[in-house]
Amino acid sequence: MNLQLKDQVVLLTGGSSGIGLATAQQFAREGARLFICARGEGRLREAAGSIAAETGTEVGFHACDVTRPAEIDGLRDAVMARFGRVDVLVNNAGTGIYKPFLEVTDDELVNGMALNFFAQFRVTQRIAPVMIRQGAGAIVNVAGCSGLQVLDPPFFSTCTGPAKAAEIRFTKALAAELGQHGIRVNCVAPNFVEVPERTQAWVAQMSPPGTSPEETKKQWAQRVALPGKRWCTLDEAAATIVFAASPAAGYTTGEVFVVDGGFARD
Ligand code: NDP
Question: Does the keyword Oxidoreductase apply (predicted)?
Answer without folding.
Answer: yes
